């Protein structure tokens, strides 16, 4: 039996799956950043304020989180501030087919060469 852990991906499908896995990790980091901002903005005593300070200040941390996703940090910041003002939460759950509410914002990223889909949803609190 060969150990595939040290074997680099070779097919387009393997590379796409690896890229999606990496993107999911960075999206989870952005979700954590937003969650920390939301908690601090709501005045929760145990909240970490570093993310909110960054979002309303230099945005250096946000830029570092956006870079691997090739996302524009200023655009992401504007959307996060808008969502914070509206009281929205960020969840990584896919809405049920036909059950999507008008208060959900979802972004669907298709995985190339596979039928799977990933969905990020923001619910109005």
Q: Name the helicity range.
A: 40-55%
Judging from the principal axes of the Cα atoms, what is the shape? Answer: elongated
Query: Termini, distance in Å?
Result: 51 Å
How many DSSP E strands?
3
Radius of gyration: 17 Å
Number of domains: 1
> Strand-and-helix sequence, N→C?
HHHHEEE
The percent range for strand residues is: 5-15%
Quaternary state reads single chain
What is the helix tally? 4
Give the helix/strand class. alpha+beta
Strand order of the largest sheet: 1-3-2
Mean pLDDT: 76
Description:
By secondary structure, this protein is α+β, with helices and mostly antiparallel strands. The chain has one domain (12-124). 46% of the residues lie in helices and 14% in strands. It has four helices and three strands. It has helices at residues 12-41, 50-55, 60-66, 73-86; strands at residues 88-91, 105-110, 117-124. A three-stranded antiparallel sheet has the order 1-3-2. Strand 2 (105-110) and strand 3 (117-124) form a beta hairpin. Residues 94-125 have low confidence and may be disordered.
Q: What are the SSEs and their pairings?
A:
Blueprint: H1 12-41, H2 50-55, H3 60-66, H4 73-86, E1 88-91, E2 105-110, E3 117-124
Antiparallel strand pairs: 1-3, 2-3
Which short descriptors sum up this protein?
about 120 residues, alpha+beta, 3-stranded antiparallel β-sheet, 4 helices, about 45% helix, elongated, disordered C terminus
């Amino acid at each position: 039996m060969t150990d595939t852990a040290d074997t680099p991906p070779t097919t387009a499908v393997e590379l796409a799956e690896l890229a999606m896995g990496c993107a999911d990790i960075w999206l989870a980091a952005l979700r954590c950043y937003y969650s920390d901002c939301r908690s601090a903005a709501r005045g929760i005593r145990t909240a970490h304020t570093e993310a909110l300070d960054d979002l309303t200040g230099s945005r250096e941390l946000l830029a570092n989180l956006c870079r691997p996703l090739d996302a524009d940090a200023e655009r992401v910041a504007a959307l996060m501030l808008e969502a914070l003002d509206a009281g929205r939460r960020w969840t990584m759950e896919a809405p049920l087919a036909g059950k999507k509410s008008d208060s959900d914002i979802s972004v669907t990223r298709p995985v190339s060469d596979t039928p799977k889909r990933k969905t990020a949803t923001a619910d109005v609190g």
